[in-house]
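Session log. Operator J.P. requested a structure for one protein chain; no other inputs attached. Running the standard single-chain path with token output.
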Amino acid sequence: MKTDEELKELVRQKYGEIALQDKESNQASCCGAGGCSTQVYNIMTDDYTHIAGYKAEADLGLGCGLPTQFAGIKSGDTVIDLGSGAGNDCFVARSETGESGKVIGIDFTPAMVEKARANAETLGFNNVEFREGDIEKMPVTSNVANVIVSNCVLNLVPNKDGVFKEIYRVLKPEGHFSISDVVLIGDLPEPLRSAAEMYAGCVSGAVAKDVYLDLIKTNGFDNIMVQKEKQIHIPADILKNYLDDVAIQEFISGSFGIFSITVSAQKPAEKEACCGPDCC
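Structure written below.
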């Protein structure tokens, strides 16, 4: 079993490779770096092309939802994107927050940050900033964001509880998040869970849906809502790299499921100071 730091280094290396590939190459692989399927298909991603602010050069085909579509971003908001990649969700958010707002993308893969900054420079977006950093310890001050978005990233982070604590810290009171992520229903077969490629491919790093939602609740968020849910099907030609024929049939026909969910929640308002007999 790899340590948390080893898993994070695996992700950093894989997504450094992905930053150098085009969208078509990424979508033709199960993990975004190398062709581990004989078909060309898109396993997880949703279509961004109809959304305002979409920039094809920033879309590497790595998401599993459309969190900005559900995020309720308003003009002038400060928005943070966790695991911002080449900047796709940041540029969509920028179209909603406008020139009076600010968008900050955070990614711990240097090649991704470099690519996103180059895209922002080409587009002339002076209010979109990309910072290199770990989302378990964000390079952002507390109580700064109106909205936080993220697209298929927390499943890659070993310490998901730590990320939700950081999201709580960085959001303003009454700020909210909208996150698309991969979750599980049932037990993932051990060969898939232990496969490094499947971890970097967003599957074996996922946790059970009820555990994921409970992490949000126990970290103090209100108004938790699953905004969208879809099942993800892993084709047999990928599964055969990890499972035998019998195990593949059991996997496909069993009660196990891999899902993309988009979930939102809100940081509560600050409590008013009280100096009455009941609280002082």
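Operator note: The chain has eleven helices and eight strands.
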